[in-house]
Amino acid sequence: MKRIKKGDQVIVIAGKDKGRQGAVLHIADDKVLVEAINMAKKHTKANPMAGAEGGIVDKAMPLSISNVMLFNPMTNKGDRIGFKVLEDGRKVRYFKSNDEVVDV
User: Fold this and answer.
1) Residue 92 lies inside a defined structural domain of this protein
2) pTM as predicted
């Protein structure tokens, strides 16, 4: 089980977008893709066969997973994640600052 999953709300803790938050779109190894964070300009060539226009397109680039923290809505800050097993045997993630369970 991973600390950060697809669809989680995260906050960036390091880099040029420090303090911004967004939803996780994709996770691969130690990289995470967050919507509207770490945007780069991509120069694309027109492709009439595919119906794609050419020009400059904004594209979200991956961040290191160590530069993001899961956003805790109770404290409105990034928070560390721990794991615990409930009475019914399910393994869940929880916020370490207030012991609130992330997975319901």
Assistant:
1) no
2) 0.85
